[in-house]
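U., I forgot to send this yesterday:
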Amino acid sequence: LTLGLRPLAPLLVMLQSFNTIAPANGQAGFRAGRQHKLQASAAWDFSKSWTLQAGAFTTVASRAFRHESGLLTAVWYRF
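Result:
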């Protein structure tokens, strides 16, 4: 799920939810679990074709997965 808002024309502020659900399938090495992450980021259109994104994410709930937190950067190219 992604929610976005443009407070200024070149700026996109986003809140995203990422969810992983792994059902048990009986194979060795694979176990059931769930992980739910939230990510907040901002994307700045610094030209017609290029955007720079920066943000942070964290695990808000999990079962059988490790907690993860981190920072992210991305460069988008529109063609």
